[in-house]
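Milestone 3.1: sequence recovery, worked example.
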C-alpha cells in the first residue's frame, strides 16, 4: 500500500483532500499539511517530518503531493526525503492525480510504475474545455 501527504500553500492541501474524500470516501494513511502564511519554516518542516515518520513505518512507500514546483512545500519535501528511498515527491497536484492515487495505492506494482500512471493521469486531466457545436441550442428569438 502507498501512503500519502498532500501539502501546499495556504489551505490547498485541505481543500484537495476534502474534495478527494467527497468523491472517493475517507482515505486512511493520507494527511493534509497546509503551509500557512504565519507558519515558521521550522514549524512547517517539523509537521512534514512527523507525518513522514508516521506514514513510513515498516518501510511503507509514501508519496508527497505538492502544489507548485519550486515552492516551499515542494522544496521542503524534497529536502526532507532526499535520503529516504521510499518517499517520492510530486509537484503540480490536481484532483485527477489524487483520484488515480486512490485506485493505484493498493496495487502491488513497483513505485516507478505507480508514479508513471499518476503523472500520465495528471496530464490527461488538464485540458481546455470546449463545447461541441452540435450540442449548442440556438434560440429562435435570438435570446
Amino acid at each position: 500500500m502507498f501512503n500519502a501527504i498532500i501539502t501546499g500553500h495556504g489551505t490547498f492541501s485541505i481543500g484537495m483532500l476534502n474534495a478527494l474524500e467527497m468523491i472517493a470516501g475517507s482515505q486512511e494513511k493520507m494527511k493534509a499539511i497546509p503551509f500557512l502564511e504565519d507558519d515558521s519554516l521550522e514549524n512547517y518542516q517539523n509537521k512534514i517530518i512527523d507525518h513522514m515518520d508516521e506514514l513510513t513505518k515498516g518501510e511503507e512507500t509514501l508519496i508527497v503531493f505538492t502544489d507548485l514546483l519550486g515552492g516551499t512545500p515542494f522544496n521542503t519535501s524534497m529536502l526532507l526525503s532526499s535520503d529516504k528511498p521510499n518517499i517520492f515527491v510530486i509537484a503540480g497536484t490536481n484532483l485527477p492525480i489524487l483520484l488515480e492515487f486512490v485506485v493505484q495505492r493498493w496495487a502491488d506494482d513497483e513505485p516507478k510504475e505507480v508514479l508513471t500512471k499518476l503523472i500520465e493521469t495528471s496530464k490527461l486531466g488538464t485540458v481546455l474545455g470546449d463545447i461541441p457545436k452540435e450540442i449548442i441550442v440556438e434560440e429562435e428569438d435570438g435570446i
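Residues 41-55 form the longest helix (15 residues). The chain has a mean pLDDT of 93.
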